[in-house]
Write a structure and sequence with these properties.
The complex is a heterodimer of chains A (113) and B (112). Chain A is mainly β. Chain A is 0% helix and 51% strand. In chain A, a hairpin with a 5-residue loop joins β5 and β6. Chain B is mainly β. Chain B contains no helices and 11 strands. Classes of the chains: A mainly beta (113), B mainly beta (112). Chains A and B meet through β6 and β11 of A and β4, β5, β9 and β10 of B.
């Protein structure tokens, strides 16, 4: 069975600082990988996804993620965080890209002024 | 262009009751998936509907059932509610199962 681990429950960064959110997955082959953001009272919004090819994926809102097969990781990064980035971030995997995603438990991001 | 909409936004029920949640997919989408998100956890896949049939199902009991209508809207029904069913229920729609899912804002269910 596929599983996703987000080791950091809560991260606090200063506005303008860089950000890296960690995601590790457990699955024999390379799954389809996703990062979502959820703001309070809102549904999930897709930031980016990786299916194959270039291991560095660019997403919306200035986010990027790097797939590392050797580490079974798909970490999310942003060079300069804005106060509006404060939210909960979820990493997800889908073995077959059939819309049956397995989500991690999320990382809550707080941005200090 | 309206996105995914869900109703109601909030709901309070008591144990043993039944509940129906509704979802209207994004315009042009034909596939609807339902997720349960307990407090402090990530969403868990319940099931997916396409062409009015359940195509995939997660690890949820038969108390959870659904329906998809010809206009692609969908309902999630939960029977014999338990306290543990308290959660945010998210609906996601897509054009086919392999395209990007768009999520609605969810229905928050509280079971007392």
């Amino acid at each position: 069975a596929q599983s996703v681990t987000q080791p950091d429950i809560h991260i606090t960064v200063s506005e303008g600082a860089s950000l890296e959110l960690r995601c590790n997955y457990s699955y024999g082959a390379t799954p389809y990988l996703f990062w979502y953001v959820q703001s309070p009272g809102q549904g999930l919004q897709l930031l980016l996804k990786y299916f194959s090819g270039d291991t560095l994926v660019q997403g919306i809102k200035g986010f990027e993620a790097e797939f590392k097969r050797s580490q079974s990781s798909f970490n999310l990064r942003k060079p300069s965080v804005h106060w509006s980035d404060a939210a909960e971030y979820f990493c997800a995997v889908d073995r077959t890209n059939a819309g049956k995603s397995t989500f991690g438990d999320g990382t809550t991001l707080t941005v200090k002024p | 262009d309206a996105g995914v909409t869900q109703s109601p936004t909030h709901l309070i029920k008591t144990r043993g009751q039944q509940v129906t949640l509704r979802c209207s997919p994004k315009s042009g989408h034909d596939t609807v998936s339902w997720y349960q998100q307990a407090l402090g956890q990530g969403p868990q896949f319940i099931f997916q509907y396409y062409e009015e049939e359940e195509r995939q199902r997660g690890n949820f009991p038969d108390r959870f059932s659904g329906h998809q209508f010809p206009n692609y809207s969908s309902e999630l029904n939960v029977n014999a509610l338990l306290l543990g069913d308290s959660a945010l229920y998210l609906c996601a729609s897509s054009l086919g199962s392999r395209e990007t899912q768009y999520f609605g804002p969810g229905t928050r269910l509280l079971v007392l």
